[in-house]
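Entry for the shared binder. Reason: the reviewer on the internal report wants the predicted structure included alongside the sequence.
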Amino acid sequence: MSHSDLAVIILAAGKGTRMKSSLHKVLHPLGGHPMLHHLLDTLSTLSPARKIIVVGADKEQVEDSVGDQAEIIVQDPQLGTGHAVQVTRDKLGGFSGDVLVLYGDVPLLSAATLQGLLEVRHSSNNPAVVVLGFEPKDSKAYGRLVVDESGALMAIVEHKDATPEQREITLCNSGIMALDGAVMFDLLDGLRDDNAAGEFYLTDIVSIARMQGLDCAVSVAGETEVVGINSRRELAEAEAVFQAVKRQQFMEGGVTLIDPASVYFSYDTEIGADVTIEPNVFFGPGVVVENNVTIKGFCHFEGATIRSGATVGPYARLRPKADIGAGAKIGNFVEVKKSVVEPGAKISHLSYIGDSIIGAGANIGAGTITCNYDGFNKALTEIGKGAFIGSNTALVAPVKIGAGAIVGAGSVITREVSADALALTRAGTREIDGWAAAFRQKQENKKGK
């Protein structure tokens, strides 16, 4: 099948009232990525010729998020799922290829499942309608897919309308379909709104196709792929599914997760082989971890790169554009932001490194701060190769520490330090004999009074 003969309609007109949010339902994040974008990413592997998103409220939010990835159509008034597909007529009226009808709040569909749906659409009996079915552990109130002995789809029966025998059917309707674009609008024209809700139901398209002598069929997916998200609770349940899949993928790829359930990944996390991740680690979007890295517990990463052989944590935070070099060490309670830490450098304790370049093999003492912000602008701190920065040092940017230089503990550095020099800014020590004993006696006398 040529993908130029494929169009996709994504239904996203639901108001999402159960989310209780000003954010459009389909833009709520799953694994750090809007659920609608999960679907668009999956569709990119199929390269459809057209992608249309049907929205209702908050059109601007969807437009701003999607950009030029899809066309946006507004369904107003909103008269049901069948009507939502009907409003695409101006865009797809002359389209004769395959049309996938998907839902923006069903983000976990795999490309393989969608490809399987299209393969059934192109099976020998050329079904005009292919419905994606699934077999849930609990059928709840799902519509049932009634098939004959050959497996052909005869009808979709809603749970409330099903007979006791039909309710025993385990094959349920996901709502997702593949349609023959050449006849789709003819079938949609047969929909009626003579029901309690006064809406046009897309599910009625099966009975209309059968009445016209057209075949209908079923493709089957796993339950977790077709889960719909309509509330925060369901979003959390989908997140658990997403994380379980990610953890399994990484472990199969050679990553050791000591406590898998306590490690959370984003949709785009990249991790190499022979990486060990201790408990309670969170990966935000944009993190790349190369081979042979050790990540200790209670770390938080986003937009960062950790090169081969580095060690990070525990209790470390890597913010966007942190680039940790090969064999480098980032220790406990260290925060790194928009900085390059070159190979072999060490920042072992209690430090903030922002807008900096830390040279190879440099050693940054406990309590070191790069003072990168003056209230208006950010400035760069450069620390040369092999330099040593003593504990409790403030480096006031813009500032440069030369290669091999040593900065004494407790210093505030405001100007360039030459290579191999020693820089000290703390005041000299002054000692007053007997002062401490006299002070204690004075305080005790006050207390006695």
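Summary line for the report: The domain at 3-226 is CATH 3.90.550.10 (Spore Coat Polysaccharide Biosynthesis Protein SpsA; Chain A).
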